[in-house]
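Figure 2 data, in text form.
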Amino acid sequence: MKKSIKIDKFVVGIILVIVLAYFFPGLASRESAVPLDTISGIGISLIFFFYGLKLNPEKIRHGLKNWRLHILVQSFVFLIFPLLVIVFYPLFKSGDYLHIWLAFLFMASLPSTVSSSVVMVSIAKGNIPAAIFNASISGLIGIVVTPLWMGIFLEHQSGDFSLLDVYTSLMLQILLPVFLGLLLHRYLGGFATRYSSYLTLFDKLVILLIIYKSFVHSFEDGIFDSVKLEQLALIYSGVLALFFLVFFIIGRVSKLLKFSTEDNITAQFCGTKKSLVHGTVFSSILFPASFSIGIILLPLMLFHVTQIFIISIVASKVSKRDDTGEIVTSNQ
């Protein structure tokens, strides 16, 4: 009997808050007395404080041993992904789709996910310690690299973009909480591990709040009125093409490097993921007020749904392999 594919509750939550943003925008409207900006700002800092608490310095040092796998994953996450989008820049730099192209570049330059990467690698019986290391280190690298990629193009598009201001905001809102969390890991790391599921729920609630706020403002400004159905289909086609292209290339490179089946799984699963958590946080810091955050987050949210759906199917399939690496079917 085949197992049915479970619908990710976070994906359902994203859809619900977008619907709420459309029909019930009151809490996040610009005239609202509720200080959602302050609440979400505190929530963001707490997310990264807890992230620092969960980082085990000893495990990170131990994880450096599998350096070829880590270099491959991070190269795809922060180099190959953005370059695959940048090659199309000449087609969009002077057209009406420039903001959508910037949204794709933003998505492509983000770090890998943490929790879903590790969970999917675990289901697929991949290299779990390497997945934990790559997911953890990716978030730290992204704080530096993502703004650099975006700064190259945003400085030309917006006069009020300042890379110095961006890094100052990132230092105060993200790096400082992570550093404090790392300092307190020795004392509170057990707490973070014990209540990890609750902290993950907190992360998702903060992200849903930011998405709700972003889409309320986008609906108020009529941003999505200009997005036609065929344009939405084109955006999703681009998302699918980018995902499968990276998934295929990283799989081929892993085989050329003669990685084990477990390392190959980790490379493909971690190297093709993009973090919605970092995306929602970075978008409010990186992009000037003249940009619609709803449009900027659209390809990322579509990618998030896609990566969870496809990787969960692949993970379920490869988990049925035998000792030789062959997939065992139910009628064997």
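Caption note: Residues 327-332 have pLDDT under 50 and may be disordered.
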